[in-house]
């Protein structure tokens, strides 16, 4: 799989409605995963969106999620740039360069969904997420 770069949007509890609207606008295939499905979470946050991905016929990729439980939503930090794919060497190289001189908010490590993932803000204040797909998934 080729590495892809796309916007990743954060929402304050309305990710499902927003991503479904974007699907109406752009067409394509929308996948939605809730916090409950991913980690067995129960309660009011279980139905919130942990990860959404819209892939359009024109080749657009738009991702998004509700702000994770325990984190505060802020419109000023409602986006990140996402890098994802299965080329571990390439993506780790990007990660090293992007995080150098910046702030790491989530270290690059294996996550509960099976991928290796990290999040940082580069030295210019741009938030980045890097996801290395689990080749066994």
UniProtKB/TrEMBL annotation:
PhnB-like domain residues: 6-130
Q: What is this protein called?
A: VOC family protein
Organism lineage: Bacteria, Bacillati, Actinomycetota, Actinomycetes, Kitasatosporales
């Amino acid at each position: 799989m080729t590495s892809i770069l796309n916007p990743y949007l954060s929402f304050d509890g309305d990710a499902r409605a927003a991503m479904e609207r974007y699907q109406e606008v752009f067409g394509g295939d929308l996948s939605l995963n809730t916090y409950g499905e991913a980690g067995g979470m129960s309660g009011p946050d279980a139905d919130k969106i942990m990860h959404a991905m819209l892939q359009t016929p024109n080749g657009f990729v738009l991702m998004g999620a509700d702000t994770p439980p325990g984190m505060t939503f802020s419109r000023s930090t409602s986006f990140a740039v996402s890098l994802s794919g299965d080329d571990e060497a390439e993506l780790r190289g990007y990660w090293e360069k992007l995080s150098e001189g910046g702030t790491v908010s989530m270290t690059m490590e294996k996550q509960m969904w099976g991928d290796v993932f990290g999040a940082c803000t580069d030295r210019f204040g741009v938030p980045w997420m890097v996801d290395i797909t689990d080749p066994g998934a």
